[in-house]
Amino acid sequence: MNEATINDDQPNNDFQCHHIFPDGFRCGSPRMRDEQFCYFHHDSRRPVVRPHERLARRSTFSLFTPTSHDAIQESLGELLIRIAANDIDPRRAGLLLYCLQIASANLRVAQKTQQTQTPPEPDSN
Ligand SMILES: [Zn+2]
Q: Which of 67, 71, 16 is nearest to 40 (CA)?
Protein backbone atom coordinates (compact mmCIF):
# COMPACT_ATOMS: atom_id res chain seq x y z
CA MET A 1 0.00 0.00 0.00
CA ASN A 2 1.46 3.37 -0.95
CA GLU A 3 0.59 6.86 0.28
CA ALA A 4 -1.28 7.74 -2.91
CA THR A 5 -3.85 5.02 -2.12
CA ILE A 6 -4.36 6.35 1.42
CA ASN A 7 -5.03 9.89 0.22
CA ASP A 8 -7.35 8.79 -2.56
CA ASP A 9 -10.51 9.85 -0.73
CA GLN A 10 -9.28 13.47 -0.56
CA PRO A 11 -7.42 14.03 -3.82
CA ASN A 12 -7.43 17.84 -3.61
CA ASN A 13 -6.29 17.98 0.00
CA ASP A 14 -3.48 20.43 -0.69
CA PHE A 15 -5.81 22.98 -2.22
CA GLN A 16 -8.58 22.57 0.32
CA CYS A 17 -9.43 25.03 3.09
CA HIS A 18 -8.25 23.86 6.54
CA HIS A 19 -11.46 24.80 8.32
CA ILE A 20 -13.08 21.89 10.18
CA PHE A 21 -16.81 22.18 10.78
CA PRO A 22 -18.32 21.26 14.19
CA ASP A 23 -19.51 17.96 12.70
CA GLY A 24 -15.90 17.03 11.91
CA PHE A 25 -16.07 17.56 8.16
CA ARG A 26 -13.52 19.68 6.44
CA CYS A 27 -14.50 22.71 4.33
CA GLY A 28 -14.34 21.67 0.68
CA SER A 29 -13.65 25.13 -0.73
CA PRO A 30 -10.30 25.86 -2.34
CA ARG A 31 -7.94 27.85 -0.11
CA MET A 32 -6.80 31.31 -1.09
CA ARG A 33 -3.37 31.63 -2.66
CA ASP A 34 -0.63 31.22 0.02
CA GLU A 35 -3.28 30.93 2.75
CA GLN A 36 -4.61 28.08 4.85
CA PHE A 37 -8.27 28.95 4.49
CA CYS A 38 -10.81 29.77 1.82
CA TYR A 39 -12.15 33.30 1.45
CA PHE A 40 -15.11 32.49 3.69
CA HIS A 41 -13.08 31.04 6.57
CA HIS A 42 -10.09 33.36 6.41
CA ASP A 43 -9.84 35.53 9.51
CA SER A 44 -9.45 38.68 7.42
CA ARG A 45 -13.13 38.27 6.72
CA ARG A 46 -14.73 40.13 9.61
CA PRO A 47 -18.02 38.98 11.08
CA VAL A 48 -21.06 41.16 10.38
CA VAL A 49 -21.18 43.76 13.17
CA ARG A 50 -24.90 44.29 13.46
CA PRO A 51 -26.60 41.67 11.29
CA HIS A 52 -30.10 43.00 11.95
CA GLU A 53 -29.15 46.50 10.80
CA ARG A 54 -27.49 45.13 7.71
CA LEU A 55 -30.59 43.13 6.92
CA ALA A 56 -32.71 46.25 7.39
CA ARG A 57 -30.48 48.18 5.00
CA ARG A 58 -30.69 45.46 2.36
CA SER A 59 -34.33 44.48 2.70
CA THR A 60 -36.56 45.37 -0.19
CA PHE A 61 -40.29 45.83 -0.35
CA SER A 62 -42.65 47.51 -2.75
CA LEU A 63 -44.78 50.56 -2.17
CA PHE A 64 -47.68 51.87 -4.20
CA THR A 65 -47.00 54.51 -6.82
CA PRO A 66 -48.15 57.67 -5.00
CA THR A 67 -50.82 58.72 -7.50
CA SER A 68 -53.65 59.01 -4.98
CA HIS A 69 -54.14 59.83 -1.31
CA ASP A 70 -55.11 56.21 -0.71
CA ALA A 71 -51.86 54.95 -2.22
CA ILE A 72 -49.89 57.40 -0.08
CA GLN A 73 -51.79 56.31 3.04
CA GLU A 74 -51.07 52.66 2.24
CA SER A 75 -47.37 53.40 1.81
CA LEU A 76 -47.30 55.38 5.06
CA GLY A 77 -48.91 52.44 6.84
CA GLU A 78 -46.34 50.05 5.40
CA LEU A 79 -43.50 52.33 6.48
CA LEU A 80 -44.99 52.82 9.94
CA ILE A 81 -45.12 49.06 10.52
CA ARG A 82 -41.54 48.62 9.32
CA ILE A 83 -40.20 51.48 11.41
CA ALA A 84 -41.99 50.15 14.50
CA ALA A 85 -40.63 46.65 13.93
CA ASN A 86 -37.11 48.07 13.36
CA ASP A 87 -37.21 46.42 9.95
CA ILE A 88 -36.00 49.36 7.90
CA ASP A 89 -32.88 51.48 7.94
CA PRO A 90 -33.94 54.79 9.60
CA ARG A 91 -32.15 56.83 6.95
CA ARG A 92 -33.99 55.07 4.17
CA ALA A 93 -37.27 55.40 6.05
CA GLY A 94 -36.59 59.15 6.35
CA LEU A 95 -35.99 59.45 2.61
CA LEU A 96 -39.14 57.52 1.79
CA LEU A 97 -41.21 59.63 4.18
CA TYR A 98 -39.80 62.76 2.57
CA CYS A 99 -40.76 61.42 -0.88
CA LEU A 100 -44.27 60.66 0.33
CA GLN A 101 -44.51 64.17 1.77
CA ILE A 102 -43.57 65.67 -1.61
CA ALA A 103 -45.99 63.33 -3.41
CA SER A 104 -48.78 64.32 -1.02
CA ALA A 105 -48.09 68.06 -1.52
CA ASN A 106 -47.97 67.63 -5.32
CA LEU A 107 -51.25 65.76 -5.24
CA ARG A 108 -52.90 68.55 -3.24
CA VAL A 109 -51.67 71.18 -5.72
CA ALA A 110 -52.87 69.08 -8.66
CA GLN A 111 -56.31 68.65 -7.12
CA LYS A 112 -56.60 72.38 -6.35
CA THR A 113 -55.67 73.25 -9.96
CA GLN A 114 -58.22 70.76 -11.23
CA GLN A 115 -60.93 72.31 -9.00
CA THR A 116 -60.26 75.88 -10.22
CA GLN A 117 -60.21 74.74 -13.85
CA THR A 118 -63.56 72.96 -13.74
CA PRO A 119 -66.27 75.35 -14.92
CA PRO A 120 -68.89 76.20 -12.29
CA GLU A 121 -72.15 74.29 -12.44
CA PRO A 122 -74.70 76.14 -14.56
CA ASP A 123 -77.66 77.52 -12.57
CA SER A 124 -80.66 75.31 -12.94
CA ASN A 125 -83.72 77.46 -13.60
ZN1 LIG B 1 -13.39 27.17 4.09
A: 16
pLDDT digits (tens, 9 = 90+) for 72-100: 999 999 999 999 998 888 999 999 999 99
The Å distance, Cα 38 to ligand 1 centre, comes to 4
Separation of alpha carbons 15 and 73, rounded Å? 57
Average pLDDT, whole number, for the chain? 83
CA of 113 to the centre of ligand 1 (A): 64
- Closest-CA residue to 41 (of 51, 54, 28, 52): 28
Q: How far is the CA of 91 from the centre of ligand 1 (A)?
A: 35
**Rounded to an integer, what distance in angstroms lies between the CA atom of residue 34 and that of residue 116?**
75
- Residue 84 confidence (pLDDT): 93
Residue 9 CA to ligand 1 center (angstroms) comes to 18
The CA 94 to ligand 1 mean position distance, Å, reads: 40
CA distance 38 to 30: 6
